[in-house]
Amino acid sequence: MQVTRLEASGLRRFQRVSLAPEAGINLITGDNGAGKTSLLEALHLMAYGRSFRGRVRDGLVRTGSDAVEVFVEWREASQGRQRRAGLRHSGQTWMGRLDGETVTQLGDLCAALAVVSFEPGSHALVTGGGEPRRRFMDWGLFHVEQGREGGFLPLWRRYARALKQRNSLLKAGSGGGQLDAWDHELAEAGEPLTRHRQGYLDALQDDLSSVVGELAPSLGNASLHFLPGWRRHELSLADALLLARERDRAAGYTTVGPHRADWRIDYSALPQRETLSRGQAKLTALSCLLAQAQDFARRRGEWPVIALDDLASELDRHHQRRILARLLASGAQIFITGTEPPVGLVESDVAPALFHVEQGGVERLITP
Predict the structure, then answer these.
(1) Could you give the CA distance from residue 307 to residue 302 in angstroms, rounded to a whole number?
(2) Same domain for 221 and 352?
(3) pTM of the entire structure?
(4) Of 155, 203, 259, 360, which has the highest C-beta tally within 10 A?
């Protein structure tokens, strides 16, 4: 995928900003606080419905603006078509359009543009709670199973609706017959949903092993382990829900099921699941994201857009070189922000498209 146009208004420091990126590497420089990261946030918003810094209402909308508006045009090489999407998000409500048509499901809009982002908070994929790891699995499945009959997205929506209804009944203290019906619906959607997630992580294993072997060989072999959200090897989801019903009534919400799913990575060189250092966690998170991008490329016939925020401050020179060499070989469109170019780019013979952010605007620089 190649973004050919990015426009935003009401975005943090920018009243209005426009960018016409190139196919290869796009380097965005500027002083700290100038707004470099905000440009990547705009891309991330279109692809995920949220900023990688958090919710839209947590500072993404410029002070004095009612909403942030993002417009993106991109080319899909595998399909040979040009696409465009627009999103207006106030932090409370949103409106979206995709290829000239109004979108009623935010997931449909986000599934159109594939962006893989690595930023200073990405280590939370490994060290944080389960939510970012569930989003990781679901993002991959949304994209690689697009248009597939009986695919992941309809199951995910069906499960989410049933979970909402069951939790409402539990909170209200309602009884058995209605809960039986929603238990059945959760099990009917949750069992195949879980098989999709298990299959996706299994498919990532070889890619992850390859990336870790290059970026963090000292950690040894990497193994992905899926945690389905209930004792799946002992119980069906229907039985797990029934056994947990009294506990769920006391808690007021559903305590077992795919909404509690998770995964972890074990390394052969770290016995007894030794805690990763911050640097190891960053490399592990980046390895997961690159493995996901490789899997996407193999299944979809083109790489997603890669966004690397402040790469030079997050990784040492050795790893910068390795990552950039790998991405340059892929042919992916890459966005990199920083106060200065990363060393791996300086040492290469690649001439990136240069952009400089200053005083609420972006200027295209002429490559020497």
Answers:
(1) 16
(2) no
(3) 0.89
(4) 155
In a domain, 293, yes or no: no
Q: Whole domain around residue 84: which residue ranges?
A: 1-114+304-368
- Across the strands, what pairs with 2? 75
CB 241 within 8 A of CB 254: yes
Same-domain status, 145 and 273: yes
Both tokens of residue 314? 């997050």
Do 251 and 365 share a structural domain? Answer: no
Please say whether the beta carbons of 365 and 22 come within 8 A: no
Beta bridge partners of 108: none
124: phi then psi, degrees, rounded to nearest 5:
-65, -20
Strands (E) in the chain, as ranges, are 2-11, 14-19, 25-29, 68-76, 81-89, 94-98, 101-103, 115-118, 222-227, 262-267, 305-308, 334-338, 353-358, 361-365
End-to-end CA distance of the chain: 27
Structure tokens at 146: 């697009």
- Edge to edge, what strands does the sheet with 353-358 contain? 115-118, 305-308, 334-338, 25-29, 353-358, 361-365
107/210 same-domain check: no
Nearest to 89 by CA among 3, 6, 8, 5: 8
Q: What span, in angstroms and rounded, lies between the C-alpha atoms of 138 and 144?
A: 10
Q: In total, how many domains does the chain have?
A: 2
Q: What is the model's pLDDT at position 12?
A: 84
Distance CA 116, CA 40 (A): 10
- Shared domain for 142 and 267, answered yes or no, is yes
Q: Do 153 and 266 have their domain in common?
A: yes
CATH number of the CATH domain containing 179:
1.20.1050.90
Query: Cβ(259)–Cβ(237) under 8 Å?
Result: no
**Do 140 and 80 sit in the same domain of this protein?**
no
